[in-house]
Amino acid sequence: MITRAKAGIHKPKAYTIVTTTPKPNLDPFHEPRSIKEALAIPHWKKAMLEEYKALMKNNTWTLTTLPVGRNLIGCRWIFKVKTNSDGSINRHKARLVAKGFHQSDGFDFSETFNPVVKPTTIRIILSIVVSRSWDMR
């Protein structure tokens, strides 16, 4: 039963917020999801440095000014643990990849071309053409 004198009076609820700083996962099979997490682990930091050195050695980039009206395409680090057939760790692999999903067809690029055909595929097609006496253009 509530009397008129106590109507509308409520005791405020007390909330407690607890935060913790996550410690780096030192499990060698753990693949980090962010660059911040990877930089806290020595073997992933080493893998990132090796990838960066390889990109610089191969002259992968040329620094230029961004043309007017063009989109800047960012990049992202991908981390993978490569294992041997027996399940032991072969190496920690870090790759810097472009965020291609930010590109617009016809605006950032006009065509895509990937000339990857296995030689065995060409041989099979040519043998079928010859065996059936088809015309080839």
From TrEMBL:
Source species, domain of life: Eukaryota
InterPro entries for this protein: RVT_2 (IPR013103)
Reverse transcriptase Ty1/copia-type domain segment(s): 58-135
Organism for this UniProt entry: Cajanus cajan
Pfam family membership, one: RVT_2
Protein name listed in UniProt: Reverse transcriptase Ty1/copia-type domain-containing protein
